[in-house]
Design goal:
Distance between the termini: 75 Å
Structural class: alpha+beta
Number of strands: 4
Radius of gyration: 23 Å
Largest sheet: 4 strands, antiparallel
Strand order of the largest sheet: 1-2-3-4
Order of helices and strands: HHEEEE
Length: 142
Amino acid sequence: MKQNAGFTLIELMIVVEIIGLLISIAVPNYLRTRVQSNEGAAVANLRAILDAELSFSAFNNGYALDFATLTEASPPYLNGKWDGPMNGYRYRIEGDVQSFRAYATPVEFGTTGWRGFFVDPTGIIRQRLNADADATSPPLGN
């Protein structure tokens, strides 16, 4: 008599359950880590924008009003393309030649980032949970 070698249905179901359990533990941790990474990149990018604006102001007696002015200068004060999302955040600059405000806003709150960030010529990066940050938001780290 010939015996079939293989797994029983119960053994396969146990393996599937174990894989499901591992995925249910790993995926939330991965998503949390990805959001934290996006937020760290947003803060670093705002620091780069701040440095670029301060350098531009020192040489031109006023702040840049848009990213094109900072990226198309020769030599550029800021590198890269800033008109679309980067690492789950969108960036924008507002203001005039006397002052500027730079914002980093998640593409989707809760998915690509939890906090909005803001910086102005004071150099204080501010944050707000689940909303756009502004000059009244608490400083980063508080």
